[in-house]
Amino acid sequence: MMEMERVNRIWHHRGYQECLGKIRVHEEAREFCRHTPEHFLDVARLTYILALEAGSLPEKPEEREEARELIYAAGLLHDIGRHLQYEEGIPHEKASAEIAEGILSDCGFAEEERELVLYLIRSHRTRQQGKDLAPLFYRADKLSRNCFACPAQEKCDWPETKKNLEIKL
Ligand SMILES: [Fe+2]
Ligand SMILES: [Fe+2]
After folding, report:
1. Ligand lying closest to the C-alpha of residue 41
2. Are residues 106 and 81 in contact, defined by beta-carbon separation less than 8 angstroms?
3. pLDDT by residue (tens digit) across 16-74?
4. Separation CA 83–CA 67 (nearest Å)
5. Distance in Å, CA 122 to ligand 1 centroid
6. Average pLDDT over residues 114-124
7. Which of 90, 92, 105 is nearest to 141 (CA)?
8. Which residues surround ligand 2, an ion (CB under 5 A)?
9. Ordered alpha helix ranges (H), 107-164
10. CATH architecture for residues 5-155
11. What is the pLDDT of residue 40?
């Protein structure tokens, strides 16, 4: 299998693109953080960097490649249910996990792989502790936001301690 092939399948998945389109419409006039392909890939790449630095990736090349694919899958999918939070008030980690499950199956991820990705999605707003990938994913999601360059920084309800007021990674 070609490197990152399944990740690219997610990107091209019809249901995935439909959700992206809905999120884009909802966020057209949003002055705070948007949920864009840039954010999704920043989260994936930051998680991968954090995992590399933590030495928490497998040594074997094929296992490492699988881990990277799972991290990128989680990055692409973690906010994909955001429109359902805008439309129906469903917490987006739940909505995203539900949508992601079908997309992951369609794109060839086995059950065990889906479990890990769905766990990262479900816990991305809360899981700050632990030795697995989830706290790294949580951190990456926050680190991805360039508060220092954001014109809406003053109005944003993120606590000051959470904001990235300088470049960290
Ligand atoms: Fe999120
Ligand atoms: Fe996010």
Report:
1. 2
2. no
3. 999 999 999 999 999 999 999 999 999 999 999 999 999 999 999 999 999 999 999 99
4. 28
5. 9
6. 97
7. 92
8. 79, 141
9. 111-122, 134-143
10. Orthogonal Bundle (1.10)
11. 98
Ligand nearest to the CA of 91: 1
Which helix (H) or strand (E) covers residue 103, if one does? helix 92-106
- % residues pLDDT > 70 (the chain): 99
Distances (CA, A) of 54 to 47, 58, 61, 87, 135: 10, 11, 17, 38, 12
125 C-alpha vs ligand 2 centroid, how far in Å? 8
Q: How far is the CA of 90 from the centre of ligand 2 (A)?
A: 15
Do the Cβ atoms of 10 and 16 come closer than 8 Å?
yes
Tokens of 29: 């006039």
Q: Which amino acid is at 167?
A: I
CA–centroid distance, residue 90 to ligand 1 (Å) = 12
| Percent of residues, the chain, with pLDDT higher than 90 | 92
What's the whole-model pTM score?
0.96
Q: What is the pLDDT of residue 65?
A: 95
**83 C-alpha to ligand 2 centroid (Å):** 13
Q: Which residues surround ligand 1, an ion (CB under 5 A)?
A: 79
Binning pLDDT at 50, 70 and 90, where does residue 75 land? very high
